[in-house]
Amino acid sequence: MEENKDLQEVEEQKGDSPEVPAYEEDLRYDSKAQWFKGGLLGIFIGLAIIVPGVSGSAVAIIFKLYEKLLYAIGNILKRFKVCFLFLLPVLLGAVIGFLLGFFAIQQLLDLLPFATVALFAGMMLGAYPAVTDQIKEEKHTPFRIVLGLLGIAIPIAISAVSIAINEGSAPLEDLSWYHYIIFVLLGFVVAITQLLPGLSATALLMAVGYFTPLMESVHLSYWKSNPMVLLVYLCLVIGFLIGLVSVSKLLSYLISKFRGAVFHLVVGLSLGSFISMFYNPEIMATYAGFEAPKMWIDIGVGIGLFIIGVGIAYFFVCYERKHQPIKKE
């Protein structure tokens, strides 16, 4: 009953849906610094596809761009120009982040896997106060607390399932027709992981055995020997785009109506994501292969990078708090 009252209060405060011009004004970048901030967000979104546990959505919350990002993606077909101009630096940054992750970060993961993950985990932990800021003045009802605990459990459960059922890589050759339908659905679910903080596209693809095969397939010689893999890419992209637009609209609606409940879930997802960075198939394989003296070098460097990551991310949080305080309606 208390939660129903709370939801009713939220609806009364919100009233009717916001006018379109207000959103249009919000989607405009005020300065070059804001434009580059969108690009930096895109870099983290691109990295999130490659590095286990990295959440582009959590970074969007830190930069106070999460709700704008959802609105812009969800309304790209209805108001193309305004939404596209907002998304342009994010898209450019995402391409840079993906390429950086694919070539540079993957090399670092091979060289010092624990240390590399520790750096990003530190950044996630340092950024966590920006996520909890979203519920600081919200009511912490039993229902919302349960949502928060559920959010913590989901990324950890996904990692546990990934570890339990990871029996090797799934093939991308000699596929049947229904596999392509599965790839469309998989692309749809990957889109969800990019929109909900705490969910990892990497962990999802590992769970179904397609992360390594997809990464290794991005090579000209592979395309020549198995050209049908291009159809796999197309199916993934189609599902991803459908998921981005539809789920963004749904999340925008849920936040406008049930903001407190949604962000309690998000807070839990973000914390669960931090934990899962040290508990997923790839990092477990790293633990199993630890051998001295490389192990101690990796751990020692990792501790240092973890502290640096916390410091860098928390600096950004403090900067955003000072220059762009959270607005209460």
Roughly what fraction of the amino acids lie in strands? under 5%
Kindly report the average pLDDT value. 81
Spatial separation of the terminal alpha carbons = 24 Å
Largest sheet: none
Number of strands: 0
Rounded to the nearest angstrom, the radius of gyration is 20 Å
The number of helices is 15
Instruction: Please state the overall shape, judged from the principal axes of the Cα atoms.
Output: globular
Structural class: mainly alpha
Relative helix content: over 70%
Order of helices and strands: HHHHHHHHHHHHHHH
Low-confidence stretches: 9-25
Task: Describe what this molecule looks like in 3D.
By secondary structure, the chain is mainly alpha-helical. The chain is 77% helix and 0% strand. The chain has 15 helices and no strands. The protein has helices at 2-14, 20-26, 32-48, 56-62, 66-74, 80-111, 113-132, 142-165, 177-195, 201-207, 211-217, 220-225, 229-276, 281-288, 294-323. Helix 1 (2-14) crosses helix 13, helix 3 (32-48) packs antiparallel against helix 4 and helix 9 (177-195) packs parallel to helix 13 (229-276). The radius of gyration is 20 Å and the shape is globular.
